[in-house]
Amino acid sequence: MRPTRTVVLLTAGLVTLLGVPAAAAADTPAALYVGxxxxxxxxxxxxxxxxxxxTISAAAAIVRPGQTVRIGPGLYEEAVTIDRSGExxxxxxxxxxxxxxxxxxxxxxxxxxxxxxxxxxxxxxTGGVKVVRSADVExxxxxxxxxxxxxxxxxxxxTDVRVSRSRLTGLRVEGGSRGxxxxxxxxxxxxxxxxxxxxxxxxxxxxxxxxxxxxATVAVSGTSAGSGxxxxxxxxxxxxxxxxxxxxxxxxxxxxxxxxGTRADYNLITGDSALAAAYSxxxxxxxxxxxxxxxxxxxxxxxxxxxxxxxxxxxxSPTTDSADATAPGVIPTDFSGNPNSDDPGAPNTxxxxxxxxxxxxxxxxxxxxxWMGIDEPWAPVGxxxxxxAGSNSHWPQAMTYRADFGxxxxxxxxxxxxxxxxxATHVYTSPCSCTVKVTGTNAGGVAFSAEKTARVxxxxxxxxxxxxxxxxxxxxxxxxxxxxxxxxxxxxxxIAPWPVESxxxxxxxxxxxxxxxxxxxxxxxxxxxxxxxxxxxxxTKGATSTATRSVKVDYAPxxxxxxxxxxxxxxxxxxxxxxxxxxxxxTLPVGISVPDHVLSGxxxxxxxxxxxxxxxxxxxxxxxxxxxxRPATSNVNVRAGGTSxxxxxxxxxxxxxxxxxxxxxxxxxxxxxxxYYQPGIGQRFSPIAPTRLADTRTSGGALGGGQTRxxxxxxxxxxxxxxxxxxxxxxxxxxxxxAHVIAYPDPAKRPATSNxxxxxxxxxxxxxxxxVGPDGTITLYTNTGSTHLVLDAVGWYGKDARALxxxxxxxRLADTRTxxxxxxxxxxxxxxxxxxAVGAALNVTATDSTGPGFLTVYGYGTTRxxxxxxxxxxxxxxxxxxxxxxxxxxxxxxxxxxxxxxVITDLLGYFTQG
Length: 914
Prior knowledge:
Blueprint: E1 31-34, H1 56-60, E2 68-71, E3 74-76, E4 80-82, E5 92-96, E6 104-106, E7 110-113, E8 116-121, E9 124-125, E10 129-132, E11 135-140, E12 143-144, E13 152-155, E14 159-164, E15 167-169, E16 171-173, E17 181-183, E18 186-189, E19 195-198, E20 204-206, E21 209-212, E22 216-221, E23 228-230, E24 233-235, E25 250-254, E26 263-265, E27 268-270, E28 277-281, E29 284-286, H2 289-296, E30 303-305, E31 370-374, E32 378-380, E33 384-391, E34 400-404, E35 412-413, E36 423-427, E37 432-441, E38 447-457, E39 467-470, E40 486-490, E41 500-506, E42 512-516, E43 521-524, E44 529-539, E45 544-553, E46 559-570, E47 578-579, E48 584-587, E49 605-613, E50 619-625, E51 636-638, E52 643-651, E53 657-662, E54 666-678, E55 684-695, E56 703-704, E57 708-712, E58 725-733, E59 739-744, E60 756-758, E61 764-771, E62 777-782, E63 786-798, E64 811-815, E65 827-830, E66 837-847, E67 853-859, E68 870-872, E69 878-885, E70 891-895, E71 902-912
Parallel strand pairs: 1-2, 2-5, 3-6, 4-7, 5-8, 6-9, 7-10, 8-11, 10-13, 11-14, 12-15, 13-16, 14-17, 15-18, 16-19, 17-20, 18-21, 19-22, 20-23, 21-24, 22-25, 23-26, 24-27, 25-28, 27-30, 32-38
Antiparallel strand pairs: 28-29, 31-33, 33-36, 34-35, 34-37, 37-38, 39-40, 40-43, 41-42, 41-44, 44-45, 46-54, 47-54, 48-53, 49-52, 49-54, 50-51, 50-53, 55-63, 56-63, 57-62, 58-61, 58-63, 59-60, 59-62, 64-71, 65-70, 66-69, 66-71, 67-68, 67-70
């Protein structure tokens, strides 16, 4: 049975490990700093933290009582002598500011000579340490060696020297030294006794681990009476061939001259078969502790083992919980700084039932983590909530746990249960989002904690609620995008006493998202309108609640972004024509696809100049958002054989396209991009009554072919000087030839576009929106003949304007030309679609096909449909727009058995569910 823990009083001669020294006088800095690795170190300075000394010696020469010398990592190639003294309660302290494996290396000797009240901690003196003619010296956490000589020598009458938690290659106490205390050290020597005490009365050797291969593992000789050997672990089972003497191998040797008053007990010696004797005491050999005790009264509780097997930091080691905790020289921590701990799995066979271990190391439970669980992390008021806990302690039976439920109630102790770990139950009396904290503490007082949140809700029924708000872009980022007509549904307003298990959202347009998460779900509608949205929420207890409301979906008010005009489409360039009754998809150049025209990926509406030419009969053209029904409207009317153009402002379709369709006949189609509208960016618009800006009939004369003319459009006629674009009606009259007119902002950069097509004998006009160029002007150009031009302003755009008007970026997802052709019957996965996307609008292109066939695009991981998305033809590059489901941010592309082909996949738009 584990005894009650008691406070152990140390002997009067023991001084425990010192902490930070007391503060020095007000005019003396508390610390001096040494850092040989610091570029700005200097031995001529004051040793401040900003400018440290380069050498330890520089600090040792000026250190005063109560000061601490903090030594940074580095290689100190110097011999250091400490000959200055502190005062009682105000020692001088040298501390290596490094880890347990010391990084402050001293390559030559460290000597403490004629000094008193000195502390040295955390250094690695590979030139050895010597303490002579000094008093009240503490050496802690050193790693001292000196080749084949002793790493530490204490001599020449030194008194009250304490050595603890250090790794030493050989240790010698000699020369009349008195009151030396050695505690929790690791001492090794391969050529002589690891520890030799010679003419050093009152030397205390407690809780050390000593490994020796020659002579006695501990040798006490000369006038060293009154010494003590307690709780030590002596590894003595091997003999070296490099021994410096032929003395017989023994564990503990106490010479007759040192035996008076010298005591030994609770030590453990390994290797009885390798030793000449376990002990040599007063020149007599003793084979084991029993015969020693019978003859001398010493070693009654010593242990002798055949070898080191099973000894030390192993299960069931005889060193565990078997030492004398009242012995002089016992300190509260072991070699590694761990507390003295009781192993609950080992019997407490130490003195008076104590649990101190023998040797330098104390067995630990190695506690570093505590975990916890809550059986009902989301529950209504009045529910019994149970927490359980565990840890990685090697001694779980010695752990205690306390839980703070975070609502102001007193912490409680978790109790053991028949199954599982310890538990505690609590009933919350009011709603809260409470942080539950469980703290686990081991027998040594080391504690770790874990935290989780308990969501305590009001008691009542599950009540579904949701908000539906438009999702609007916030920037003109050419890479990212937000489509118009996107709605965000959030169920955060749902009153849910128990956790929500699943949520279904019916968007009212035939689309249903099932089992969506609690995060808001985004959905893009194909067309504006009134939609009935239904949300069904189910909780973990089986309750269901439904909420329904009508939601209006429309394009959002938008600002205008003027661009330099550029040609987007000209069907004449590839010999195709526009056929009446068949809509043509026009993909808008969002993103960075057009050089010198980086556009937003989130445009809501486009401003186009649309030209129809070469019509075979009188007809008209309609332009509308792609994916929506064709409106009963027209945008451009044209005669047989004629050319006609018009400015069209059209919302962007959900797939990033607009549709154009002739009513009848056939013709060529030319589309120039002028600008776009988008929520959150751009300029507002101010309409004005038609105001004449220029008329060449009254000023300047007709504009000749190949000529340009600038017209002042800002800073005149009520249009402010800082207007960014002007909308005007451009009229051509008196044209002498079929020609076209271009209106543009920069006279040095005429685009390959047109705003107005002229015919002799006809007055023709078209509205244009043109960015304002240098000095508030625009430039006009006609290609041939001559014509008069009239400009009537109808409004302007700018920061002081007052009206708003009203999204997708072509982005390459995959190109097999960089990875290898898609073979017949093979499938490729196209990744990179937005996370959470349930559908996408893609532009899929097949090229370099070796045989006729088709491609099928479908959601990754789903069943491939019996349908084609794109037909492949040898020698042709065939693009097509594809709307496809998406699964896990990926789609699959399957090639039929017609032949191998390259597949290029571009993203035009996608549908998300949040």
